């Protein structure tokens, strides 16, 4: 699939599915563009055939490449590296920006972000910037004059650069930051709020140390006591947060032992490799060798490559493919077997069944949240598909 609103010399770096409409996909690009696409046709789309450019629209233009694109409920946040480093916080349904943050001095960078139902966090060179969403969409009479709080992660040496953030809704106010010096730092953003951009006071924190820079931290939503951590030396492990060791003594450099090690991830220097989890079952991660690997979050074992899915019936295929530039038909190869042209920078699991996106009954059930497993969003009976940013396009794979 190649979004029609983007030039072919642009590169899609990030993917994010909408929480309210599972058929809505946002992409962030190397040129600083954020675009939104509707993967499911509207009832009157046939009137525009074959001109379906309206399915993709550009929403925001930032001054440099997009480094993060996250959504939670009706909110989204995106950052660009800089200069100047900039972040946009907006609503997902109306594409209305609540705030735009530009950092100074110009040499400052924004590497990542995270968003929950009540908090936005931005990862910079030496700190995490925090602001409650309530401070952004409140009225001007009640809005604080300086809603930005700062949590310092390091000094001028670069060891505190924040490459990854996660703010789980079930975390009770916890923020997790993965930094260059090989630490996963967890802290409660509600305690000792500084505000006004002033560096926050020392707060109680939890630290997990690994032997290389941390590239990913992700709390498993179905198991909020589990933290997935990836590092530059191919490190990939799952930690039980109930057994973390607080740094009570400065000389205590021992680190918490992981509950599961996943061996086989390939990375030596990249900070931008795609990773996503499917419930508390599977993690998909891209390697520096341009391949995607799946691991079980329950056993830590690499999953065997699944067989290629059977081709769809010719009638469904003809309804599904509208043109060569907008085809969403999944590849016949397993994502575990297919090397990409470059290391994928973003992966996203979804319950969408790409073969049925031209089925009006399926679309109605999809948007009504009926048609998948209980509590699902109208997917392939609980079986995920994996969407991969690949150059100027997005590929989709069935994951049996």
Model description:
This protein has 400 residues and is mainly β. It has two domains: 189 residues, no CATH class; 203 residues, Methylamine Dehydrogenase, Chain H, CATH 2.130.10. It contains three helices and 26 strands. The strands form seven sheets. Strands 1-2-3-4 form a four-stranded antiparallel sheet, with no helix packed on it. Strand 5 and strand 6 form a beta hairpin. The longest helix is centred in the last third of the chain and has 9 residues. The chain is globular and about 55 Å long. This is WD repeat protein. InterPro entries: CUL4-DDB1_E3_ligase_receptor, WD40/YVTN_repeat-like_dom_sf, WD40_repeat_dom_sf. Keywords: Repeat, WD repeat.
Short description:
With 400 residues, the chain is mainly β. The protein is built from three helices and 26 strands. The protein starts with 11 loop residues before the first strand and ends with a strand.
SSE layout and pairings?
Blueprint lengths: L11 E6 L6 E6 L3 E6 L17 E6 L4 E7 L2 E6 L5 E6 L5 E6 L7 E6 L3 E6 L2 E6 L1 H4 L11 E4 L9 E5 L7 E6 L3 E6 L16 E5 L4 E6 L6 E6 L4 E5 L19 E2 L13 E4 L3 E5 L5 E5 L17 H7 L26 E4 L9 H9 L16 E6 L2 E6 L2
Antiparallel strand pairs: 1-2, 2-3, 3-4, 5-6, 6-7, 7-8, 9-10, 10-11, 11-12, 13-14, 14-15, 15-16, 17-18, 18-19, 19-20, 21-22, 22-23, 24-25, 25-26
């Amino acid at each position: 699939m190649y979004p029609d609103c983007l030039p072919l010399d642009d590169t899609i770096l990030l993917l994010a599915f909408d929480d309210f409409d599972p058929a809505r996909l946002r992409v962030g690009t190397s040129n600083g563009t954020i675009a939104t696409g509707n993967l499911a046709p509207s009832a009157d789309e046939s009137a525009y055939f074959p001109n379906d450019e309206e399915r993709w629209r550009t929403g925001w233009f930032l001054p440099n490449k997009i480094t993060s694109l996250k959504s939670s409920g009706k909110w989204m946040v995106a950052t660009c590296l800089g200069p100047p480093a900039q972040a946009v916080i907006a609503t997902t349904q109306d594409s209305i920006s609540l705030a735009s943050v530009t950092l100074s001095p110009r040499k400052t960078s924004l590497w990542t972000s995270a968003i929950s139902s009540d908090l936005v966090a931005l990862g910079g060179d030496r700190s995490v910037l925090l602001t409650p969403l309530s401070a952004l969409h409140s009225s001007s009479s009640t809005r604080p004059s300086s809603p930005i709080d700062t949590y310092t992660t390091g000094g001028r040496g670069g060891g505190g650069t924040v490459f990854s953030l996660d703010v789980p809704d079930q975390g009770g106010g916890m923020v997790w930051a993965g930094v260059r010096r090989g630490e996963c730092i967890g802290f409660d953003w509600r305690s000792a709020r500084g505000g006004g951009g002033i560096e926050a006071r020392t707060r109680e924190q939890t630290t997990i140390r690994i032997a290389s820079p941390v590239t990913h931290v992700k709390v498993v939503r179905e198991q909020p006591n589990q933290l997935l951590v990836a590092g530059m030396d191919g490190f990939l492990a799952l930690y039980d947060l109930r057994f973390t060791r607080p740094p009570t003594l400065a000389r205590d450099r021992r680190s918490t032992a992981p509950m599961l090690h996943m061996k086989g991830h390939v990375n030596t220097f990249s900070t931008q490799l795609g990773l996503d989890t499917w419930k508390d079952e599977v993690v998909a991660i891209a390697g520096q060798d341009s391949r995607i690997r799946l691991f079980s979050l329950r056993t830590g074992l690499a999953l065997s490559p699944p067989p290629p899915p059977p081709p769809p019936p010719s009638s469904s295929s003809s309804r599904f493919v509208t043109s060569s530039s907008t085809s969403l038909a999944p590849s016949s190869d397993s994502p575990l077997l297919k090397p990409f042209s470059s290391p994928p920078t973003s992966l996203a699991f979804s319950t969408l069944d790409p073969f049925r996106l031209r089925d009006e009954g399926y679309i109605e059930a999809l948007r009504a949240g009926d048609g998948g497993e209980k509590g699902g969003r109208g997917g392939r009976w609980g079986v995920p598909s994996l969407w991969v940013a690949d150059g100027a396009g997005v590929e989709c794979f069935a994951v049996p």
